[in-house]
Amino acid sequence: MEFRLHGANPLKLYELFGVEPPAKIYDFSTNTNAAPQRGGFSPNLREAVEDYPDDECAALRALLSANFGVEKENLLVTSGSNEAIYIIASYAAARENFILQPVYGEYLRALSAFGAKTRNIFSLPAEFPEGSAVWLCNPCNPTGEFIPDAEIYRTADGNPNVFFVIDEAYRDFIWTEEELLPLEQRPNVIRLRSLTKIYDMCGARAGCVAADEKILSRLRRRQPSWSVGGLAQQAALFFAADDDLVPRTKKYYSKEMPRLISALNSAGFRTLPTSVNYFLTEIEDDEKFIRFLLERGCVVRHTRNFPSLDGRFVRIAARRAEENDVLIAAIKEYR
């Protein structure tokens, strides 16, 4: 069976398996935030639909600048981090690109689309060839492993002629005790942030790039005008103004993740360590396991397209406590 490249869109998985979707579906395949968001979002739909959006995302860049501790001149807002990945990849065709695996599949997909040379690596060495680029997700999707900031800074500083593309989509989900250093701008480091995951607004595509102004100038040349829609900007401005969300998120997952993982371990499943809101659990027959859960309304993420995982695990993202209880009950029944 050929699985889809990503999680989410659960009805497509039901169609693939030929399973009738139940009235209620619990989607553990997508890594969006289950912590409560602030209420009261009331978009101006007339403005969002009829007016051209701000092509510079000035208000949103100012807000994100304060949130991330980065000068607004060092920020570029994009239509989700995927747009940024493809724009960066368009400049990478002449480089040798090292991808730290296992990882999100869009890096390879984007680089391949532009004919770039790629090579998988499974640890971060101290040195890279001159003029190459390194792609990594930190914390890692799908494992949840976090590489300390000091190690990445040390590697980047030791390779000044190598570009490091660091996807930090899940940084705000870290609930374990990690030494998180302030964002320090470097001329060879490009950081990606997704707003859709932490603010649970995947339908409104918004993300950003933090990088040196010279890098951003080149990226802007290949970004379509008005790529970030008005509704996406309104949503991001509203939800990103919630100063308590990140602490609230960490507090929620620091309690719920150990509970969920412990329940799976008690049911006889081996799970891998994680620092964020999702984790891997080892499974003997992924197709059988996924089908069993689908029949009980629970959707998890396969790992067949992740090098070194190869379907021996499934990825599970924690949801609300009552939803997690449904999954726990289904997994206990499977055993």
Automatic annotation (TrEMBL):
EC class, as a word, reads transferase
**Keywords linked to the UniProt accession:** Amino-acid biosynthesis, Aminotransferase, Histidine biosynthesis, Pyridoxal phosphate, Transferase
Family of the protein in this entry: Belongs to the class-II pyridoxal-phosphate-dependent aminotransferase family. Histidinol-phosphate aminotransferase subfamily.
Give one GO term, molecular function aspect.
Answer: histidinol-phosphate transaminase activity
Q: Please report the name of this protein according to its UniProt entry.
A: histidinol-phosphate transaminase
Pathway membership: Amino-acid biosynthesis; L-histidine biosynthesis; L-histidine from 5-phospho-alpha-D-ribose 1-diphosphate: step 7/9
Q: Which InterPro entries match?
A: Aminotransferase_I/II_large (IPR004839), HistidinolP_aminotransfase (IPR050106), PyrdxlP-dep_Trfase (IPR015424), PyrdxlP-dep_Trfase_major (IPR015421), PyrdxlP-dep_Trfase_small (IPR015422)
Per its UniProt record, what SUPFAM superfamilies does this chain match? PLP-dependent transferases
Name the domain of life this protein comes from: Bacteria
An individual GO BP term: L-histidine biosynthetic process
In what residue span(s) does the Aminotransferase class I/classII large domain sit?
52-331
The EC number(s) given in the record are 2.6.1.9
**What is the organism of origin for this protein?**
Synergistes jonesii
Enumerate the catalysed reactions: L-histidinol phosphate + 2-oxoglutarate = 3-(imidazol-4-yl)-2-oxopropyl phosphate + L-glutamate
Q: Which Pfam families match?
A: Aminotran_1_2 (PF00155)
